[in-house]
Amino acid sequence: MVTKKEIADYLGISRAAVSLVLNNTPSSTISSKTRNKILQAARELGYRDVDSSPKICFILYERDADDPRYMRELHLVEHAASQAGYGLMFMNVTKAPESIDKLRKALESKEIDGSYVSGDVDECLVQVLRSYDTPFLLFGLPLSGNIDDLNYAISDNRKWAFEAVNHLISLGHTRIALFSGSLDYEIHQLCLKGYCDALEANEIPLDRSLIQISDDENGYELCKRAEMLQLDYSAVFCVNNVIQFGVLQRLQSIGVSVPDDISLIGVGLIDLVKISVPQLTTYYMADAIIAESVSLLIDLIHDPGTGRRACSITEFSLFEGGTVAPKKS
Questions:
Q1: Which of 209, 227, 233, 292 qualifies as a FRET site for 124, CA 20 to 30 Å off?
Q2: CA distance 329 to 326
Q3: How far is residue 29's CA from residue 173's CA, in Å, rounded to a whole number?
């Protein structure tokens, strides 16, 4: 059987793009021309979706369908599901009533055997999922408060941030800026705590002026703001690769050398990491961790009566891009 990877290789495009089209994902970034090319290639190569196979639904909540931070995750979930004999559906769900109704109809149809849930999960979504028998697993960051009866794979974002900042400190950096998105998101709050933990562990005084926030997560503008404030720093910790890439673009546009003048480190492993010049230095969750979370969900589907499935993700890997270097004397 022809696979989505083979279609992607045939066209010379990303597997994520092929998956989004063949899974009928409403992605605004894939042009009609590219979509038609993918569908035509699928027909020519003899691709057939297995409609009768069990299905896992990847639910991306309160994030754009084409948010680059979730494309790697989508790809890895699809691969792990396929290895276990499951097809993958995709739903981009928001708080809007019509979007929630669409999710309810999908769950009522019984076409979904289990849901893998990512994005900015809140109690509203959890209540909807609880009202159906379909097993679900939250990936990334579960809700605050009582989560004892939820199935999840939770990442220790505080430790993740600590390791990234501590890596900069190990290279001699003490003036480290934090560039973050809105602190309304708990994931960013935890990154801030991890940043402060690393400074405290190394007896480096906290300079609050080095903590800069952008609700729209615009690294380019955050960097410009730091220039206007004349902040003194030799390195930046960015809470995601999107912000990190924007910072790199701004620094390069004004002639600042990265990493010779300023080092940049982030968390995540989106496509921007490897296509960036230089490649971005970042801490990330290994592929096997995401595959393990899919296995937890499949265990729930096969044997729902044996109790809750949960795991804590505490191990992170370093992608040694080219945006970090020892501090100059």
A1: 292
A2: 9
A3: 38
